[in-house]
Write a structure and sequence with these properties.
The chain is α+β, with helices and mostly antiparallel strands and 354 residues long. The chain is built from eleven helices and 13 strands. It folds into two domains: 178 residues, 3-Layer(aba) Sandwich (Aminopeptidase), CATH 3.40.630.30; 140 residues, 3-Layer(aba) Sandwich (Aminopeptidase), CATH 3.40.630.
Amino acid sequence: MPLLIDPDFSRLPDGLAGLFAAAAETSFFNHPAWYAVFAAHALEPGGEARLYTDASAGAGLLLQRPGSVPGRQLRSLANYYSCAHAALLRPDVDAATALTAVVAEVLGERPRWDSLLLTVLDPAADDFTALDAAFRRFGMVVRPYFDCGVWYQQTQGLSFAGYVAGLPSQLRNTWTRKRRKLAGSPRLRLTYCAGEDGLDDAIAAYEAVYRASWKEPEPNPGFMPALMRACAVLGALRLAVYHLDGEPAAAQFWIVWRGRATIFKLAHDERFIEHSLGTLLTMELMERVLENDRPIEIDFGHGDDAYKKLWLPLRRERWGLLAANPRTPRGLALSARESAARLYRRLRPAPDRG
C-alpha cells in the first residue's frame, strides 16, 4: 500500500516491518517505537502522520500534515525533539530509483500539495541527494538549507581515562575539584535506570528536576515519559538522576542504540549550581556508557549550544529541503519568492573585507 494515514507503528504489515527494521539498524530515530511515541504525543492538534512507500516497500517517507498550516503542506514527521530524520531504505534498493517512486506517489495525489518541508536530514546521505533530485525531476522548486549542527565524538576503543585526558583543562579541573568535595558523601545519591525496574520513580525524579530547572516546560508533556518507557523496553534507556540532600537535583536521559549514544535531554536545579552537578552527572554517565556500552560514537543531539563542543569536539550538520510546487497558487507564490531570493543571493555584491 503506497500510503498509510496515521499508521499503527506497533503493528506494521510484514513488508513495512522489515523496512523499518532495516532502517533502525542505522539510527534509533528510524525505529517504529520512536515514531509511535512521536505520533501519539508530538503531532500538532488536527495533524496526521502519513507514511508513503514505493510498490515493493523498499523505501518509505514519513511525513505529517500539520494542523495549523494554511494550504496543503507536508512536513517531515519530525520536530524539535528529533535528532535525525531520514527516508527509510532497504539495503538492497537503489535510493534514487526507490525514492523517485515514493515522491511520485506524494506528488500524484489530488488535490496537489503546495509544498514539502523535510528537516534534520544528513546532507551526505544517499536519501538527501535522491530526494533533492526527485523533487526537481517532477518540477518542484527546491531549496536545500542548513538546519542545525550536531556535536559528537568518535569513541570506538576510547576508554573513560582517554576521554578525560582529551577534555579542555578548565572542564577537567572543574570536574576534579567538584567531585572531590562530594565523592563518597552521603549528601549525594545516584539513581540510575537502564530498564523497566524502578522506571516510574526515575521518571518522576527526572520531571521534578526539569520543573525546577531553567528550561521552558515541555510543549508535549506526555512525550518524554512515553519515550523513556519505549527506550526501556528496547534496552536503549540510560536515565540518571542525582539527589542532593534527598532532593532530585540533576538529571540526564541518554539513548544508546546500535553502537551510538545520544545525550538526549539534561537538566539541573539551579539552586544547586555551586556544586556543578550537571558536570558531575555528565561525567558519571560518560564513564558508564564508555566502559559498559562501548559505543562507536557519542553525540549531543541537535543544536549548536556553546557548551557542547567542550564535551564533544567534532561537528556535523543536518540540512533540510524545501520543495515548492509551482502548479498550485500557494506553491507558485512560494516558488516565486524562493527564485527571487536565489537570484538576489547570486547578484548581491560580495562584502567588502577591506
